[in-house]
Amino acid sequence: MRCPIILLAVICLSFMLLSACGPQVDERAEPVVEESTSTEADVEAIKRVNVDLIEAFNAGDVSAAVALVMDDAVDLPPRRPAVVGKEAIREFLQSDVDRFIMNFADEIVEVEVAGDLAVIWTNYTVTLIPKNDGEPIKNNGKWLKVLKRQSDGSWKFSRNIWNSDNPPPERPTG
Fold first, then answer.
1. Which of 76, 95, 102, 133 minimizes the number of CB atoms within 10 Å of its CB?
2. Domains (ranges, CATH) in the chain?
3. Rounded to whole angstroms, how far apart are CA atoms 38 and 24?
4. Are 120 and 13 in contact (CB under 8 A)?
5. If DSSP codes are grouped into helix, strand and coil, which group holds residue 160?
6. CA distances from 114 to 48, 107, 150 (A)
7. Residues 103, 96: contact at Cβ < 8 Å?
8. How many CB atoms are located within 10 Å of the residue 77 CB?
C-alpha cells in the first residue's frame, strides 16, 4: 500500500516542479493589440490604384493593368484554375481584351490597411461586348483584392479573387 502513495506523491511533486519551470503569465498585463497603421493617404492611394485598374480594363490597356500587379501576383477566377505570376496574368487579360470590349464599374465597400498589406472589397458590374458577333454578357459580383506596399511607397495588387452574383450557366442535358 505504501508504493501507490509514494508513486502518487512523486507524480504530484513532478507536476508542481514542471509547472514552476514553465513560462509565467502576468495576468495583470494588458493584452497586446496591434494598432492599425492605416492612414488616410494609404486609403486614398489604394482607391486610386483600384480606379486605375478599372480604367485600364475599360480602355483595353493590358500593359497598364499589368503594371499595377506584382511579379508574383495571383488571380483566382471563378470556375478556372489560378493564374499565377505577372506574365500569366498578362496572357489571361489579353485573351479577354482580344475577344471583348469591357465596360467595368466598381463600387468600393471596404478598405482595410494593416502595415504594408491592404484589402479592398468591391462590388462590380461588367458588360463584355463581343468584338465578333454575339450578345453582350452582363455580370455583377464581388471582388476581393489584396495589395502590398512597394519599397517606393506605392501599392500593387498581390491577390485577386472574384465571384459572380449571377447564377451559373445552365448545363446541357442529355
1. 133
2. 40-164 (3.10.450.50)
3. 34
4. no
5. strand
6. 18, 21, 14
7. no
8. 13
Return d(Cα 156, Cα 64) in angstroms, integer: 12
Tell me the pairing of strands 83-84 and 100-114. Answer: unpaired
pLDDT value at residue 1: 52
Decide if 117 contacts 147 (C-beta within 8 A). Answer: yes
Q: pLDDT value at position 170? A: 82
State the cell numbers at 21: 519551470
Q: What is the pLDDT of residues 10-56, one digit of tens each?
A: 454 444 444 445 455 455 555 444 444 568 999 999 999 999 999 99
- In the DSSP assignment, the letter for residue 1 is -
Distances (CA, A) of 70 to 24, 65, 78, 163: 43, 11, 21, 22
